[in-house]
Amino acid sequence: MVHVFYTTFTNKLPADKYQQLLAQLPPIMQQQVSGFRKWEDAHRSVLGKALLIEGLKEYNLGSVSLADLNYTVFLKPFFINGIHFNISHSGNCIVCAIGTTEVGVDVEEIKEIPLSDFKELFSPEELKLIFEDPYDYAPFYTLWTQKEAFLKAVGVGLNMPLNKVIIRNNTIEYNGNTWYLKQLSIQERYICHVASPILNVQVNLKELHF
Question: Which of 170, 169, 180, 174 shows the shortest CA–CA distance to 202?
Answer without folding.
Answer: 180
